[in-house]
Design goal:
Chain lengths: 408, 287
């Protein structure tokens, strides 16, 4: 779960990391009031959960409250990477002398948290990492020991931080480690951490991502989730414990297991179709959960056919069939459905669906081909698909795919 | 021969009185696995599954009483790390954690602790281990796989079943199937299992099932090129997945642009691995 900049910085402040004075505003008037309170120059910063806000024009400097209101009006009307801006952070402008990059994240290859710092902070940090990797310093932290003070000192020395700042940097480093550890963050990032003209360290921008799996022990953080920033279907999906990502195609997919769900999408594409979504119903799904999944898929107007691929293990195919029937009864979809049930209680599941006029398939490739063909029949422009009769069972599909292309 | 589990494996089930623990213990017993004991703190002294399996309060007590040598964990995610620490401290040499959704910082602590001990962890968030015809430790449906000479190692769950099923339909069987789990931080990795298969006389060919994210497949590719004599066929899921959600700048700095299916396929191909376009193509490439 991503946190907004203003949310991240409030957490920083709670742990004693210095941040600029400022507050979040939902209207331009509020932004003006905050600017009046702060006095002097302020920065108006769009609060959306994507990177590249500055480059998109979502971060502006205002000289006075009037300008703050004017710029906030502009920014609040913007969309950044197709996300509408709903809030702006109004921060006191800082007099910057230099910018540092500073973060902690998980290094999955090393199985340890890693603290990263660079004297070349700011928006071009990824460029720096690619062009001059020697300017990026990484120190791995033993998760059983935590960050040791000497490691923070080493980091400060490695990025040539003036000695006057080492103590303060050490305190900020310990605070960032505490934040990362105590909030179950997968990322706690300050970019930039600036040295001001007044020779103080100040966290000008913050980004945090919290491990969704750990939210059970952080109800306060779970409440910070911004539902406006995700598609409504994704919110519904999470409520039911489903994992759903909307895509641009027209074949709705419902599968158990993330790997198999991705594979089903891959095969749809391999046979010339376009998946409308990724949807993993997880292990041991109940019929209520399956029905919810079905409703989510059908709420996408682009969906022309549905591919259901269930390989029962913990998941029981008869339970899935009951969910499908319940959802169909309610939504009465008019689009073709291709169903493949294998594994635990598959026979019972197939019997339940026997009267539901569904297209059945034995293998995954067969199911994908039939779904692509079904869309071809309903779509106005026919999508080229392999002819069923051309494909002997067990033949290498890639070869057939090629053959079909040359025929076309 | 096989790797990691065989007919002599004596299994302890942590979380045996929960729904999943109980259901899958029964499935394992039906398959022929020697399930010798269970642990549920507070329920020591009870007997489950028709009075056949004793329940203990702790792993240590269960081990002393029954001589188990492998533990399979079904406890809820919030207790999973503790269960892994407990099994480790009790001296269980092989731990298989089925539990899904373990917080990643818990796993970093577990993994770093385990690395100091002589303990092998498989998982978490994995389907477990299956040596067809001998023993299954975990949740892989036993009836879909037959015994044979193909070693299977996978990061996925149901996709693994799909592959075992495709092998069985083609008349092929597995020596052992190892589901290493899809979490960012886990125990046993591809290289560990490849090494075991390379030295297992029953295993003649290897199937590797990977997916997008991380760099484990890339490292496996390097290992294969340098160390493996047995042929490997691979499938990578997520070739059409939209670009993953980026972890801020730090993720890009740590992992660069690695982690896409295309990158992994390229790395594996250059190590001489044959790549299947979909799971049902795997048996054809093994011939």
């Amino acid at each position: 779960m991503k946190l907004h900049e203003y949310q991240s910085k409030l957490i920083f402040a709670k742990y004693g990391i210095p941040i600029p004075k400022g507050r979040v505003a939902a209207t331009a008037q509020e932004a003006r009031h905050i600017a009046e309170e702060l006095g002097g120059r302020v920065v108006i910063k769009s609060q959306v959960l994507v990177g590249g806000r500055g480059k998109a024009g979502g971060i502006k400097l205002a000289k006075n409250p009037e300008e703050a209101e004017q710029l906030a009006t502009q920014i609040l009307e913007m969309e950044i990477k197709s996300l509408p801006v709903r809030k702006v952070l109004v921060d006191e402008a800082a007099a910057i002398e230099s910018e540092i990059y500073f973060s902690i994240t998980n290094d999955r290859a090393k199985k340890k948290p890693v603290m990263i710092a660079s004297s070349a902070g700011g928006i071009e940090i990824e460029e720096v990492a690619a062009q001059t990797p020697e300017k990026i310093i990484q120190i791995h932290i033993d998760p059983l020991l935590g960050l040791r003070d000497y490691q923070a000192r080493d980091l400060a020395a490695s990025i040539d931080l003036p000695r006057d700042h080492w103590k303060e940097f050490g305190r900020i480093a310990q605070a960032l480690w505490q934040i990362y550890h105590e909030t179950d963050a997968t990322l706690a990032e300050i970019n930039p951490l600036v040295i001001t003209k007044e020779k103080k360290l100040l966290a000008l921008d913050g980004k945090m991502i919290i491990d969704d799996n750990a939210l059970f022990r952080h109800p306060d953080l779970a409440e910070m989730r911004d539902l406006d920033e995700e598609a409504p279907e994704e919110t519904t999906a999470r409520k039911y414990g489903l994992s759903y990502i909307k895509l641009d195609g027209n074949i709705g997919c419902m599968v158990n297991g993330a790997g198999l769900a991705m594979t089903s999408m891959d095969i749809v594409k391999l046979f010339g179709g376009e998946p409308a979504n990724f949807l993993d119903i997880g292990g041991g799904a109940s019929h209520e959960k399956v029905a919810a999944a079905m409703r989510i898929i059908l709420s996408d107007p682009n969906v022309r056919a549905i591919l259901l691929n269930i390989f029962g293990g913990i998941t029981r195919c008869d339970e899935v069939a009951r969910g499908i029937l319940a959802a169909m009864d309610e939504v009465k979809p008019k689009i073709p459905m291709v169903v493949r049930l294998v594994g635990t209680n598959a026979e019972e599941g197939r019997k339940l669906l026997a009267d539901a006029k569904m297209i059945t398939a034995e293998t995954l490739a067969d199911a994908a081909k039939k779904a692509v063909a079904a869309v071809g029949k309903t779509a106005s422009t026919r999508i080229p698909v392999m002819q069923e009769s051309v494909v002997p069972v067990g033949a290498p599909p890639a070869k057939n795919h090629q053959k079909n292309r040359s025929v076309r | 021969m096989s790797i990691l589990v065989n007919r002599n494996t004596r299994v302890l089930v942590q979380g045996i009185t929960g729904n999943e623990g109980l259901f899958h213990s029964e499935q394992m017993i039906q398959y022929g696995t020697q399930v010798a004991a269970g642990v549920t703190p507070g329920k020591g002294g009870e007997w489950v599954l028709g009075g056949k399996i004793p329940v203990f309060d702790s792993v240590k007590l269960a081990m002393e009483a029954t001589g188990v040598n492998t533990s399979v964990i079904f406890v809820p995610a919030r207790f999973a790390a503790d269960a892994m620490f407990e099994a480790t401290d009790a001296g269980i040499p092989l731990i298989v954690c089925i539990t899904e959704g373990v917080p990643v910082q818990d796993m970093m602590q577990v993994r770093n602790y385990l690395d100091q001990k002589k303990v092998r962890l498989v998982g978490p968030n994995c389907p477990g281990l299956l040596t067809p015809g001998e023993s299954k430790v975990g949740i892989i449906p036993g009836n879909i796989a037959s015994a044979g000479n193909i070693g299977v190692v996978s990061r996925s769950g149901t996709l693994t079943y799909e592959v075992l099923y495709a092998l069985a339909l083609a008349g092929m069987g597995a020596s052992t199937c190892v589901g290493i789990g899809g979490d960012p931080i886990n125990g046993t990795n591809f290289i560990d299992v490849l090494e075991l298969f390379e030295h297992d006389p029953q295993t003649e060919k290897i199937v590797l099932i990977g997916e997008i994210g991380g760099t484990d497949e890339d490292r496996a590719a390097e290992y294969i090129a340098a160390n493996l004599t047995k042929p490997v066929v691979a499938f990578i899921a997520g070739q059409t997945a939209p670009p993953g959600k980026r972890m801020g700048h730090a993720g890009a700095i740590i992992e660069g642009s690695a982690g896409t299916a295309a990158d992994k396929i390229k790395a594996l191909e250059s190590a001489g691995v044959k790549i299947a376009k979909h799971p049902e193509e795997i048996p054809l490439l093994l011939k």
